[in-house]
Structures are given as structure tokens and as C-alpha cells.
Amino acid sequence: MECELTTPEIGDLTAVPDLLVQIDTPFDTFIADGSYDDEPVSRAVLNQ
Fold it and tell me: What is the pTM assigned to this prediction?
């Protein structure tokens, strides 16, 4: 699991690709809700 606190200038959606790079272990499931349940996040996860 990875996490990052973002400032109002950095949206949550833009933080996801950098968080995914930090994960060393392959994963089969990605669960998102709220602001993370959006196309840019889906694309970032699929490109990981």
C-alpha cells in the first residue's frame, strides 16, 4: 500500500502514477472510490 498527502495545488488524480511506480509487487486488484474512480486512474493502473 502506498499513500501521499497532496496539497490543494496537486490533485489526487495526478498523484496516482507516482504512487503506482513505488509498488514493487504485482497486483491483481485495484479498488478506487470517490475522486480516484476516474479514467486517468484506470489508465495509470492499466499501464503499470
Answer: 0.62
Burial level of 26, CB count in 10 A (0-12/13-18/19+)?
A: exposed
36 assigned to some structural domain: yes
Q: Say if 4 falls within a structural domain.
A: no
How many CB atoms sit inside 10 A of residue 28's CB?
4
d(CA 10, CA 24): 24
User: Total domain count for the chain?
Assistant: 1
* Stretches in the chain below the pLDDT threshold 50: none
